[in-house]
Here is the input.
Amino acid sequence: MYNFSYQKVTSVDDAVEAMQKADDGKFVAGGQTMLPTMKHRLASPSDVIDLGGIEDLKGICMDGDAISIGAMTTHAEVAASSDVQSAIPALAKLAGNIGDPAVRNRGTIGGSIANNDPAADYPAAVIALGATVKTNKREIAGDEFFTGMFETALEEDELITSISFPKTEAAAYMKFENPASRYAIVGVFVAKSGDEVKVVVTGATACEHRGMRL
Amino acid sequence: MLTVSMKVNEQAVSGEVEDRTLLVEFLRENLRLTGTHVGCDTSQCGACVVHVDGASVKSCTMLAVQADGCDVTTIEGLTNGAELHPMQQAFKDNHGLQCGFCTPGMVMSAIDIVNRNGSGVDEATVRKELEGNICRCTGYHNIVKAVQAGAKNMGG
Ligand SMILES: Cc1cc2nc3c(=O)[nH]c(=O)nc-3n(C[C@H](O)[C@H](O)[C@H](O)COP(=O)(O)OP(=O)(O)OC[C@H]3O[C@@H](n4cnc5c(N)ncnc54)[C@H](O)[C@@H]3O)c2cc1C
Ligand code: FES
Ligand code: FES
Here is the structure.
């Protein structure tokens, strides 16, 4: 891994300011994708800005008819949350099947969504459940957020603060997983609300998680 | 260079690291705690699992500076003098290791599994929760037996 300058910040404003000042900065959340990528020298940022100290980005709360999950909430926390288990059990189950326990203790929902790996689990849920991605600048509808392989609507100095999932009548997620990493070779998220049923597939193609409405 | 301070196996330690130094490098190279192993470069094998503030993490996938101020337990921190931890004893009794390379990570993950699932943890749960720990020798059967026996011993 090439060397870089590490900065720990405690607020969203400081994180954005550090990013604007950096030559070629990168945010790090759980580091479960970033650090392996940097070890392989596929990324070599000049500055690594650690979001781990920003308390405002952590935690889960009910927000009217939606459940709001802070960007720095770990997969283990989402899986164990009684709020998520009762509002959208399929989402808790999805989080509990990402990688392995050690990955779930560090990896975050914000990092997973920002990374937009074509085989990642969360993007399917974000689109199928009609979630809204909240950033320091704006709110982005789930199905406009993922723009291509490892690409999202995020700008350079934009960071995800939380993701808001509206409660749903019924939802389920199943994946056929890679036996080593547990990434989805193919995964399907189905969600019903009102008359509409959405089906979103992850994995399977190198490109986009795309859904259809039934 | 940065100075990091943390508690490792109940002792306060500090040291100089580069920004890019991994927690596992700090443990092995600065502190000479070489029980924590590195088996891969892809965050997949689990040979490097330690506990940070009570939760299992892959110490090859966390920066040393990210553990600043944390409470870290490694395989060396489990023994009580010459007496093995009940989980280590169970690996020995059940032939849960052959070359032993994966064992420190297996034992640290196993204790985390028992902490979260209790001393009666069933076989299917043990197998699922060991997904992040790879062993190239044993075929896992005796590891799973060891974890269940260790779980019972830990329960007292
Ligand atoms: C062994 C292993 C198995 C895995 N298995 C699975 C699996 O089964 N399913 C799955 O979906 N994933 C899997 N993953 C990936 C895992 O879920 C990662 O945790 C996740 O992809 C990235 O989250 P992170 O918090 O670790 O982000 P990081 O690695 O820290 O960051 C990833 C990217 O997101 C950016 N970023 C992070 N947070 C923000 C933010 N708030 N705003 C803007 N940008 C941000 C970073 O700059 C970086 O580019 C696995 C990983 C490993 C190592
Ligand atoms: S050395 Fe850390 S997972 Fe393999
Ligand atoms: S005992 Fe050799 S790798 Fe597990």
User: Anything to note?
Assistant: Residues 57-213 of chain A form a domain with the Uridine Diphospho-n-acetylenolpyruvylglucosamine Reductase; domain 3 fold (CATH 3.30.465.10). The first strand of chain A starts at residue 5 and ends at 8. The first helix of chain A runs from residue 12 to 21. Chain A touches chain B through 28 residues (CB under 8 Å).
